[in-house]
Design goal:
This is Argininosuccinate synthase. The chain has 15 helices and 14 strands. It is α/β, with parallel strands linked by helices and 410 residues long. α4 (92-111) packs across α5 (126-137), α8 crosses α9 and α10 packs antiparallel against α11 (320-332). The chain has helices at residues 15-28, 46-55, 67-80, 92-111, 126-137, 146-149, 154-163, 238-251, 276-292, 295-313, 320-332, 363-366, 377-386, 388-399, 403-409, and strands at 6-10, 31-38, 60-65, 115-117, 142-144, 177-181, 184-188, 217-224, 227-231, 234-235, 256-262, 268-274, 338-345, 348-355. The N and C termini lie far apart (93 Å). The strands form three sheets. Strands 3-2-1-4-5 form a five-stranded parallel β-sheet, sandwiched between helices. It has a five-stranded antiparallel β-sheet with strand order 10-9-8-13-14. It has a four-stranded antiparallel β-sheet with strand order 6-7-12-11. The structure holds arginine. The site of arginine has 11 residues, from α4, β6 and β7. Residues 93-94, 125-126, 177-179, 186, 188, 261, 271 line the site of arginine (ARG).
Length: 410
């Protein structure tokens, strides 16, 4: 008997990917290896998920604890880049796909698989992120998406699970499509597809309603070279810091986001996010950059940050340009060290203090009190020369009776 092909499936433990195990086997004749990656999504015990994959017919099932790796190598670069797509979305799902892909490829090598599989539909960004990541890491591997390519719709999945008595709940229908990890939580579909519908309470799980918050929560975040290293002087890992802030900022309702987003496939979609830790960290990090980055480097970095976020959103985590921007961003973080004091309250993160040995803030230059070392007599000459080209252009406008300066004379 010839050896069967093997397929590695990105397994979540949910209905679709549980059914996909048998479905892929029947349609392709291949053996399925289920791989689940822990990126801090919480919920079910991963050993339960692993056993379920085996019960659903996987020949191998494997669970990777990638929480620290995710925090260190994916969330921290996103923080250094102040990564916010469309100015608001902290790239929660976009960050996890490349990491999950890496673990899937590792499993493919280990178990001799030639094909990768994921449970994404054909309408979203995640299919692109998985497949572009796979090709970027392992160009020799193929990929199939049973929901998209093998007609595995929701109804079909429910029927299949019932018929084969798969150990998975099919009755509890969640109206939303949810993806979550330690950097945040994404909620879409269901009644949220009507843009006018306000999110209801049951949409949220990482955050409490900010309307009636507990007392304000003040804390000091310490950064070293752009990375948070302590809360109130307690040394913690990036993962621990994100987790603690998720709890504390989440209790204050910080980090709720409701936006219409431009997807890669061209459609606009309504997305709700909750990212209390990420939003808090980005706010504090940006403020420390305000204090420590030189003006021109800072202005330029804001544009790089924007592009970095777009690239990561658009499945380019492993691309050459993204890697080059990482190098630029890393270089800028050399002096981004110090303390930021913040207050979390009623859905808001407020910075109330900053302190840094590598600050560019010079009290004596900035002060209006005694001790001023800024020589104001230089300002006149500076402005004279700085404004010279505009002055020449304005004079020409008047001569030729044309343009803004002339209009102003009328
Ligand atoms: N729209 C967001 C993104 O593209 C969230 C995706 C969430 N994924 C999901 N399967 N529900 O990053």
């Amino acid at each position: 008997m010839s050896k069967k092909n093997r397929i590695v499936l990105a397994y979540s433990g949910g209905l679709d990917t549980s059914v996909a195990i048998g479905w892929i086997g029947e349609r392709t004749g291949a053996e399925v290896i289920a791989v689940a990656v822990d990126v801090g999504q919480g919920g079910e015990d991963l050993e339960v998920i692993r056993q379920r994959a085996l019960d659903c017919g996987a020949v191998e099932a494997y669970v990777a604890d990638a929480r620290d790796e995710f925090a260190n190598d994916y969330c921290m670069p996103a923080l250094k880049a102040n990564g916010l797509y469309q100015g608001e979305y902290p790239l929660v799902s976009a960050l996890s796909r490349p990491l999950i892909s890496r673990h899937l490829v590792k499993a493919a090598r280990e178990f001799g698989a030639t094909t990768m599989a994921h449970g994404c539909t054909g309408k979203g960004n995640d299919q692109v992120r998985f497949e572009v990541s796979f090709t970027s890491i392992a160009p020799d591997l193929d990929c199939i998406a049973p929901v998209r390519d093998l007609a595995l719709t929701r109804d079909v999945a429910i029927d299949y699970a019932n018929k084969h008595k798969l150990p998975i709940e099919t009755t509890k229908s969640n109206p939303f499509s949810i993806d979550q990890n330690v950097w945040g939580r994404a909620i879409e579909t269901g009644f949220l597809e009507d843009l006018w519908n306000a999110p209801t309470k049951d949409v949220y799980s990482y955050t409490d309603d900010p309307t009636y918050p507990p007392l304000p929560d003040e804390l000091i975040l310490t950064f070293e070279k752009g990375i948070p290293v302590a809360i109130d002087g307690r040394k913690l890992t990036p993962l621990q810091i994100i987790q603690e802030l998720n709890a504390r900022a989440g209790a204050q309702g910080v980090g709720r986001i409701d936006i219409v987003e431009d997807r890669m496939v061209g459609i606009k979609s309504r997305e709700i996010y909750e990212a209390p830790g990420a939003v808090t960290l980005i706010k504090a990090h940006q403020e420390l950059e305000n204090v420590t980055l030189e003006r021109e480097q800072h202005r330029y970095k804001r544009r790089v940050d924007l592009r970095w976020g777009e690239l990561v959103y658009e499945a380019q985590w492993f691309s050459p340009l993204k890697q080059s921007l990482d190098a630029f961003i890393d270089h800028t973080q050399g002096y981004v060290s110090g303390d930021v004091r913040i207050v979390l309250h009623g859905g808001r993160v407020t910075v109330t203090g900053r302190k840094s040995d590598t600050s560019l803030y010079d009290f004596n230059l900035a002060t209006y009190e005694t001790g001023d070392t800024f020589d104001q007599s230089h300002a006149r000459g500076f402005i004279e020369i700085y404004g010279l080209s505009s002055k020449l252009a304005a004079a020409r406008d008047v001569r030729f009776r044309h343009g803004d300066a002339f209009e102003a004379t009328k």
